[in-house]
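Case study 2.
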Amino acid sequence: MPLFNVYPLYDVTPVSGKGVYVYDEKGTEYLDLYGGHAVISIGHAHPKYVEAVTNQVSKLGFYSNAIQNPLQVELADKIEAHSGCKDYELFLCSSGAEANENALKLASFRTGKARVLAFSNGFHGRTSAAVAATDNKNIIAPINAQQAVAILPLNDIEGVKKELEKGDVCAVIVEFIQGVGGLDEGSAEFFEAVDALCKANNTMFIADEVQSGYGRSGKFFAFQHYNVNPDIISIAKGMGNGFPIGGILIHPDIEAKFGMLGTTFGGNHLACAAGLSVLNVIEEQKLIDNVNAMSMYFIKLAETIPQIKNIKGRGLMLGLEFDFEVGDLRKKLIYDHNIFTGGAANKKLLRILPPLTVRKEHISMFFEALIEVLSEVKSTVV
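Prediction:
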């Protein structure tokens, strides 16, 4: 049976990984500066992660949410301690799309409204309401387009004010650093004004931290760079270091009711074990400190390369923008220098999302390769 052909694939077959490297079936080593869309947070096959998952699966990998699961409580307490989101409550699911779907559903329950406000170049997932709030018509089927969604440019505070005053918006959902869209950010004044407008208009303010959370921005959550208080915070990618897990943090003002939300696989024993090991490693290895140090080093080197027209993002959620499309550049980095990087909706942007364990020598290796590739691109053009 052939696979349903929806992914353009590079001719690379990773079979193992260790730290910031992956290895193909021939034993070729690749420097991974993309982490599978920012999923690999503490490095491939981290020994404490492997130990935690192995120990748990040998005992109990899964049972339903109809029973007591102390691992969920332990994970919730650790997320609260690491994030500083005191008194929020946790609902666990299995992916970022599911997290955003539940965030939007909860906002609609809470407010009694149905319309959603999102922003240009935003990406929130591929499920029903989440994809409708995503600014990409190519992935929105007619069944999704039935959702009531308005999409505005970032920093258009007057537009937000006008939409919220109509009285039918249940949620404003925002990435504080856009991922797939290309690392764009709103201003502090914009985010803080949106937060205030939501609170004045019975609208839930949703922080989509699926990609930017778990220390990737240099703080535990990207919204913490601003003076805002989201009602709901969605999390996923780096949460399980590759094991499927997601969730939403819910402000205590939102009351839970039996049956309001539900999931089969979310919060299973194995997922919780993976999630706990990630937080333990982030703490023990002081990885958020490392994010900030490596970000400064990366930006310092990037600023020396004249072909780079713009450096975008924060922490280890970074983008290098050029005045040409970077598809061929990415291929040269993969095939000629064995380095994985990422692309974005902005075709001129090279996206960098390494494990939070990345070191200076890895960043230096990348820039040495980039300079060489850029010289080849220049000579080809000339």
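The radius of gyration is 21 Å.
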